[in-house]
Design a protein that fits this description.
475 residues; FAD/NAD(P)-binding domain; globular; NAD(P)/FAD-dependent oxidoreductase; FAD/NAD-bd_sf
């Protein structure tokens, strides 16, 4: 008899789990609470007809570099990657900028006096990225396939990002590295905070920071198309709140946050695991502003006009302090802001001179205040007169983000901070972090290793655990 599986949630991890199970011959049904699939990969018009905005995820260095997604024929289902001329820029107040190019040699040349140090820091990881990607995009508590190369990554990843940045001499290189680390929503002066920076830089030098043509929704649309081709089904508009809401199945995979999983499983889940799931708390959140601008942004550092992603926050020291305040529950006066200029690689996002500028600031989890002016001011700081170029703006507060996507608890879009505790024990300390303690039920959301990002690796690792359970004959 064919085994049956239910996957709750149709984000990249839920769909990745579903596709992997279907590849193994399991009959799969995906159940999504929203009327549309995709989770954090939504795309659409928000304020001006013809101008398309990514609702959350936007730029995908880990998507194109994912060891699992790279094996799937997603291009057959419409996915096309598009690259900007420059992957990422980090402007400073003096009009200069640190630049991350896909090509390591070009990046090294642009960093001047720090070029050799940058190569020494990230070059070996870039050279071995394809070999170690599966090791570093998975649970920490396991024997790696490539122990020496993975250990080299670990030595850098376990350092505080601020300490690693001090090995660089120029303000441009230091700020570029710290801006990468700030994606982790954690204190940057604590051990483990360099992990995200090392991952994003190495992935960028290996495969670049592309966008999906037409919007991030194209990624999950392609995955859904493949799942359907494999015989899987998707049901939308159905909320799963209790185990009794689920149809009978041999396997259940939950693309939800741990507190929601604990609610669904109720008394079936061992108390100690349920307590661990319910204890999880977010510290940082995204306050998003989707601008429509007329013409160019007007960057003082002109290279920023060619970069798909721009990090705004000033010097390395300024960003370290802003992130410390966020984690402490204090709203920084000048928050760290991420900018996406997706139209540079994908002109179809724009409508003539009207272009979508994707932006979000790091704020404390659940922050209730209005941060729009602070986001605009940070952009205007590095692009004077920007505010005059704004035609429209659409705001997504942390509360609205959670309303749209219940996995974004208090506006946390990353599944929890990427601090040392979460790197090792996400969502709890276990050799099988995907197991919920309930037979045949697995957690596959970004709360599991390797964490946030559109890479599908949380889902495929959970699916592999579920397939081992089936093979053991436990059902």
């Amino acid at each position: 008899m064919t085994a049956r599986a239910v996957v709750v949630g149709s984000g990249p991890n839920g769909l990745s789990a579903a596709v992997r199970l279907a590849q193994a011959g399991v009959s799969v049904q995906v159940i999504e609470g929203s009327d549309e699939i995709g989770g954090a990969t939504g795309t659409g018009e928000l304020s001006v007809p013809g101008v398309r905005h990514d609702h959350c995820s936007a730029v995908h260095p880990l998507g194109v570099a994912s060891p699992y997604l790279a094996t799937l024929p997603l291009e057959r289902h419409g996915l096309r990657w598009r690259w900007p001329e420059i992957d990422c820029a980090h402007p400073l107040d003096d009009g200069t900028a640190g630049l991350l190019h896909r090509d390591l040699d070009t990046t090294v040349a642009g960093l001047g006096a720090d070029g050799r140090r940058w190569r020494a820091l990230v070059g070996p990881l870039t050279d071995r990225f394809d070999a170690i990607a599966a090791d570093i995009l998975g649970p920490v508590l396991r024997v790696p396939r490539h122990p020496f190369a993975t250990a080299r990554f670990g030595v850098r990843a376990l350092a505080p990002a601020s300490t690693l940045a001090r090995t660089l001499r120029t303000p441009q290189a230091r700020a570029l590295l710290i801006g990468m680390a700030a994606h982790g929503f954690t204190r940057l002066d604590r051990p483990g905070s360099a992990a995200v920076a090392m991952m994003l830089v190495a992935a960028g030098h290996r495969s670049g920071w592309p966008v999906a043509e037409g919007g991030s929704s194209a990624i999950t649309a392609a995955m859904a198309g493949l799942l359907t081709e494999l015989g899987g089904t998707i049901t939308t508009g159905v909320h799963i709140r209790r185990r009794t809401d689920l149809p009978d199945a041999d396997l259940v995979l939950l693309d939800v946050m741990p507190p929601a999983a604990a609610e669904i499983l109720g008394a079936e889940q061992p108390r100690r695991i349920g307590r661990a799931y319910r204890r999880r708390r977010s510290v940082g959140a995204a306050y998003k502003v989707d601008y429509v601008i007329d013409g160019e942004v007007g960057w003082t550092a002109t290279d920023c006009a060619r970069a798909g992603t721009v990090h705004l926050g000033g010097s390395a020291a300024e960003i370290v302090e802003a992130e410390r305040q966020v984690v402490s529950g204090v709203m920084p006066e000048r928050p760290f802001v991420l900018i996406g200029q997706q139209w540079l690689a994908d002109p179809g996002r724009a409508a003539g001179r009207l272009r979508p500028l994707w932006a979000y600031a790091h704020v404390p989890a659940g922050y209730p205040g209005d941060v729009t002016d602070a986001v605009t001011a940070q952009i205007d700081r590095f692009a004077p007169g920007f505010a005059d170029r704004v035609v429209a703006a659409h705001v997504t507060t942390p509360q609205e983000s959670q309303r749209r996507n219940p996995n974004h608890v208090d506006g946390d879009i990353g599944g929890g901070p990427n601090d040392l505790r979460n790197l090792i024990g996400r969502p709890r300390l276990s050799m099988n972090p995907y197991a919920t303690g309930v037979s045949g039920v697995y957690l596959c959301s970004s709360a599991t290793p390797p964490g946030g990002g559109v890479h599908g690796m949380c889902g495929v690792h959970a699916a592999q655990a579920a397939l081992r359970y089936l093979a053991s004959g436990s059902r």
